[in-house]
Amino acid sequence: MGTHRTSADEVFQRERPRLLAVAFRILGSDADAQDVVQEAWTRFARADVDSIQNVQAWLTTVVTRLCLDVLRRTHELPQRPDELPLPESGNEPEEVVLLAGELTEALKVVLDELTPPQRVALVLHDVFGTPFEEVAHILDTTPGSAKKLASRARGRLRQADGAARESGEARHVVEAFLRAAQQGDIDGLIRVLDPSVTRTADPQALPDGAPQRLRGAQAVIGETRALRSSAERARLAAIDGRPGITVRADGELRAALVFHIAGGRIVHYDVVADPRRLTLLDIED
């Protein structure tokens, strides 16, 4: 029994960073994400682990359904017509995804406007590359309906994102940020960061216990200085056609920073470090 439980704990700890990333992207709260993942561990510890054929899929399902419960409870949302499974048709939306830059700037603005199923379908498929068949299983609907939920969510986000396009100076801003981060230049960071800047990040990019969201220039500057050694390995890159930063170690891509620039300053950036998310990015170093 002891060996079995140790093995289960090792399996769960291996999956934990990704589960935290999924829960945070759906819920938008570090505390809620931690609570959901802890509850998932409790259920996993009680389960017959040997009978679970695909542990990652099982855990993702549990975490996502717990997130749905939190969303519906928090927002007191009854089931609405556009949450219901939709009839199949011969004209299903294409399996296109939002680019990382659009997700970075749009998700944080209007995620709360999406219904819980739309939110789940968009985050799982567009952010983490989860096949619609798996999304459909989690939402207890059909793949076609899951596609339509994601398509509706994209439509809402793109509508909100329509005017948010970076100017040609974005590359210069990202260059200045990288240079200041590498040099530990506080004044340089202050010049390029919006006072209310937010930083989101996958747990794989953070020290244990660090929040997945930081807000405010001083908090971001403090973290940037603490992670200066990582900044020294960073390089400018084009990510989905937009200026960004990549961090490599031993020749392998470890993280990608996707920026939203407005008014000549960084208002938000996302540190992508989840391996599944990294594979979805179009990166040109």
UniProtKB/TrEMBL annotation:
Specify the superkingdom.
Answer: Bacteria
Which UniProt keyword terms apply here? Sigma factor, Transcription, Transcription regulation
| Occurrences of domain RNA polymerase sigma factor 70 region 4 type (ranges) | 105-157
Describe the location of the RNA polymerase sigma-70 region domain by residue ranges: 12-74
Question: InterPro entries from the xrefs?
Answer: ECF_Sigma-70_Domain, NTF2-like_dom_sf, RNA_pol_sigma-70_dom, RNA_pol_sigma70_r2, RNA_pol_sigma70_r4_t2, RNA_pol_sigma_r2, RNA_pol_sigma_r3/r4-like, WH-like_DNA-bd_sf
PANTHER family in alphabetical order: ECF RNA POLYMERASE SIGMA FACTOR SIGI-RELATED, SIGMA 19 FACTOR
Family note:
Belongs to the sigma-70 factor family. ECF subfamily.
Summary of subunit composition and partner proteins: Interacts transiently with the RNA polymerase catalytic core formed by RpoA, RpoB, RpoC and RpoZ (2 alpha, 1 beta, 1 beta' and 1 omega subunit) to form the RNA polymerase holoenzyme that can initiate transcription.
| NCBIfam families (alphabetical) | sigma70-ECF
Could you tell me what this protein is called?
Sigma-70 family RNA polymerase sigma factor
Native organism is Actinomadura fibrosa
